[in-house]
Write a structure and sequence with these properties.
Helices cover 36% and strands 14% of the residues. With 157 residues, it is an alpha+beta fold.
């Protein structure tokens, strides 16, 4: 069920203890070079280690999504890897809302990207979708799912 608050949240996560991470969790397509590159980008800039990560085909991501109350369209797009998702403070954010909220947790100049929230969501999501729909054609697919570096493994669920 979409919460309808206009906050960009695509649904609510019931507090069940599945997310053992203290902070927000980024769900990403572990087979997509663009998505894995974005995760590496965030890892290098997240100096306070706020984010945890889970590949969309991991058991941890499946458990998180199974407990989310969100519209079927949002859950389907997340489950199929068509969008990045951010689970934070009991809510699920997808597409451009997720990307901008992630940027908002990073240091400057990346945090400044949040000014793009003034752009209506349907326009932001259209731009996001244009890239997401072509990412496999442009960047291909990895031959194996992303394996984090040893120093980052504790941040992956």
């Amino acid at each position: 069920m979409v919460n309808g608050t206009g906050t960009g949240a695509e649904g609510k996560h019931r507090r069940t203890g599945v997310n053992k991470a203290e902070g927000p969790v980024v769900l990403f397509d572990g087979w997509c070079p663009l998505c894995v590159g974005a995760v590496r980008f965030v890892l290098r800039r997240d100096r306070e280690a706020r984010f945890s990560f889970a590949s969309l085909d991991s058991p941890a991501a499946k458990k998180l999504l199974d407990r989310c109350e969100a519209s079927p369209e949002v859950l389907e797009s997340v489950r199929t890897g068509a969008t990045v998702a951010l689970v934070r403070c009991g809510r699920v954010y997808a597409r451009s809302d997720a990307a901008l909220r992630i940027a908002g947790e990073l240091p400057l100049p990346w945090r400044a990207m949040t000014v793009l929230r003034v752009v209506p969501r349907f326009l932001r999501d259209r731009m996001y979708g244009a890239v997401a729909n072509r990412r496999h054609r442009v960047w291909g697919r990895l031959e194996s799912c992303h394996v984090p570096e040893p120093e980052d493994r504790g941040r992956f669920l």
